[in-house]
Amino acid sequence: MDVHVGQSNKSQPCLKHGRQIGSKDKNPLTRKGAKNKDCPSEDIENLKESPDIINTSALEEADQVSSSAMALSLLVVSISFYLKEYISPDSDLYATLSLVSVAGVVVMVIAFSLGLGAMPWIIMSEILPINIKDLAGSFATLANWFFSWLVTLTTNLLLDWSSGGTFTIYTAVCVFTAGFVAIWVPETKGKTLEEIQQFFR
Questions:
Q1: Which domains does the chain have, with CATH numbers?
Q2: Where is it localised (predicted)?
């Protein structure tokens, strides 16, 4: 069986620093037409047509839509709980508000699953430098599960205090998340790791 060394596989885009190299890459060693022994110029030229290149701006928009949908659904839930405090439990409106509360929670779970549940992990792999990716990724995972545990721990305590107030707090957190993504999450499409790191300085 003959083995040909040095031939490029056009179906497998080249990688640099763990990120795919786009035609807009300003790095002289990796931009379109550059001479690179690991990434032949013909492979680099084909990258812009590759379906595997992640559009990070689309991910950021998905996160904003997800967090906004979560905030809206949780707001509906909190309003329903506030209204139920002034309505007789025997009335039809009380039962309707209960169904609205359940529907709002279901919509929140769906919005989370389609956006904030997965997108941050993809963005994290794009913005973290190679030299700290393992440590920073571990810290981010720890923080994620710590706050998940904290929410689980305090939910019943908050519900005993105020059901409407509990979901109002959750709504505020989702609104803050949407603003955070819009303001502080950098655009990574077509940028080198050095340019992404410069955004945080």
A1: 1-53 (no CATH), 56-199 (1.20.1250.20)
A2: Membrane
Give the Cα separation of 153 and 198 in Å (integer). 38
DSSP character at residue 132: G
Extract the tokens encoding 77. Answer: 């839930």
Closest CA to 60 of 201, 152, 177: 177
Residue 14 is given by DSSP the state -
**Which whole-number Å values give the CA distances from 192 to 1, 15, 23, 113, in the listed order?**
39, 12, 11, 29
Rg over alpha carbons for the chain, rounded to the nearest Å, is 23
Q: Decide if 75 contacts 46 (C-beta within 8 A).
A: no
pTM (2 decimals)? 0.65
Q: Residue 117, Cα to own-chain centre: how many angstroms?
A: 7
Q: Which SS3 state, helix, strand or coil, does residue 91 take?
A: coil
Summarised one tens digit per residue, pLDDT across range 22-47 is 444 444 444 444 444 444 444 444 44
41-92 pLDDT, tens digit per residue, is 444 444 444 444 445 566 677 778 899 999 999 999 999 999 999 998 888 9
In a 13 Å sphere around the CA of 32, the CA atoms on its Cβ side amount to 9
